[in-house]
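User: Could you check the structure of this?
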Amino acid sequence: MFFLASRGYRCIARDRRGHGRSSQPWNGYDYNTFADDLATLIETLDLKDAILVGHPMGGGEIARYIGRRGSKRVAKAVLIAAIPPLTLKTEANPDGLPIEAFDGICAGVLATVADGASDLFAQLFGTETGHARMVSGVISLPKDTPVVVETIFETT
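Assistant: Sure, the predicted structure tokens are below.
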């Protein structure tokens, strides 16, 4: 994001509800509400022809936003290692992951924060080392194009 902003592009980063400086409500942690929150941001800032970039959960959120609100204000959507709204294996989602996979991820993260986070990255990105670093890429866009960016990682 800093790469694009330093070259004159308008970049908007937001803290999803329950994250960073956003409010910490007790409810609303579902894709419909996240998509509605994103819509509120886009409409409040009157963004047009925005390029939405989402990484894991942000990708699912963007997909839900477009599904609910359409693409009238969106020029492009970039989904990076997106997590769909439902990843758990259920009768309605037979291709999902078994609950044991999520239990293992939670156990690994809770074991130690540093080692758990490293293991989580390895599981998400399929790396052997489990290391990830922030990246910036060269993207050619018109200078007046708004870009909304979730966190982007590259595995090493």
